[in-house]
Amino acid sequence: MGYRELFPYLRETPTIYLNHAATSPLPTPVVKAVSHYLHERSAGKINFWQEDWEVVRQCREKIAALINTTSDRIALMHNTSAGIQILAQGLPWQPGDEILMIDQEFPANVYPYRTLEAMGVKVRLLPAPDGRSTPELFSQYVSERTRAIVVSAVQFLSGYRTPLTDLRQLCDQYGCWLLVDAIQAVGSIQIDVQQTPVDALVAGGQKWMMSPHGTGFLYISEALQAQLRRTPFSWLSVPDPWDFFRYDQQPVPQARQFEAATLNYPGFYGMEAALDLLLKVSPAAIEQRIAHLVQYLQEQLQEIESVRLYTPEDPELRAGILTVQVGENEEQAKAVAKFCMKHGVHIAYRSGKIRFSPHFYNTPDEIDRAVRIFQKGLDTVLQQPVAASGE
């Protein structure tokens, strides 16, 4: 509970923030780290690239600790899309290859692969009206043409927690890659790429990792990196970047060869502080706390007659997202979401549904108050007369 002191909005506003699947409030250590960087650039050392590079190195180390790998497998990215683009544009696709993903993926995990259709790669969007990327669904479509299965570790709308271990087995059976968007997972649940050896995993930092926008990372296995074309390739990607005129240097074998030369240093100063916090609390404790809050929220919402659960009821099949359907149509759901926002409960309206996403520092009391406001909003909306369609 002492960690709540790190979130000033809790003292300064009446907000109940349950929208971490969209973006997270920045804890005070993150703000202090970014402010320190900006102050130094303005009134301090001004040019302190050695410190910048050390912070970048520490970010790789701490991300590696968070997902149980080594830092040489981590490349820092400015967002999730940047990492996905490296995979989409760098892997050795061939005409006739197929990429499988469900038709409920977040667009950032779809568009980069759709660009490959111009070279004869087929992206198959598998029907998943319940928003669940199940191994059973993929097993119906996987074949010798399948080159990659692309999934979110946690689906952004349904909140479904993809069984990556089962998908790994399916990929091994058919010899295809497992490429994972983990932006809704890292920071909310434990991710262990040794226990579940995915080929690549990408995540932005602004959601559950509580980092500034413009931060993120790409994890890539050594085997998959060996198959990637060397793009991007910056002047810092080589063993001795200070040997300016030795143009025959080859990229370092580490994943950092895919980093941009000029990173978002203020953001990564903040990200390092956020990673410190996550590791101090511990991924296991965070996952347990979030699971408790989501279960508590689910039990209350299920007592409301007009609420229908969209997220899996089984705790093993979800993470930090709980999405519900309410009312009789999308307009009513949107009106309920607006009512909640107006009365200080920050949730998300997505595709006719309402999404809750608490983090570890939220409390059962906040859940109680949020549900009361949600109930009031729902009652208010459902009591309004339905407008006649007219001619």
What does this molecule look like?
The structure is a single chain. It is built from twelve helices and 13 strands. The protein folds into two domains: 125 residues, Aspartate Aminotransferase, domain 1, CATH 3.90.1150.10; 253 residues, 3-Layer(aba) Sandwich (Aspartate Aminotransferase, domain 2), CATH 3.40.640. Strand 3, helix 5 and strand 4 form a beta-alpha-beta unit. 36% of the residues lie in helices and 14% in strands. The protein is globular and about 75 Å long. The strands form three sheets. A seven-stranded mixed β-sheet has the order 2-8-7-6-5-3-4, sandwiched between helices. It has a four-stranded antiparallel β-sheet with strand order 9-10-13-12, covered by helices on one side. It has a two-stranded parallel ribbon with strand order 1-11. The termini are far apart.
Based on secondary structure, the structural category is: alpha/beta
Described by strand count, sense and barrel closure, the largest sheet is: 7 strands, mixed
Mean pLDDT: 95
Placed side by side, the strands forming the largest sheet appear as 2-8-7-6-5-3-4
Gyration radius, in Å? 22 Å
Q: Would you identify the CATH H-level superfamily of the largest domain? A: Type I PLP-dependent aspartate aminotransferase-like (Major domain)
Number of helices: 12
Low-confidence stretches: none
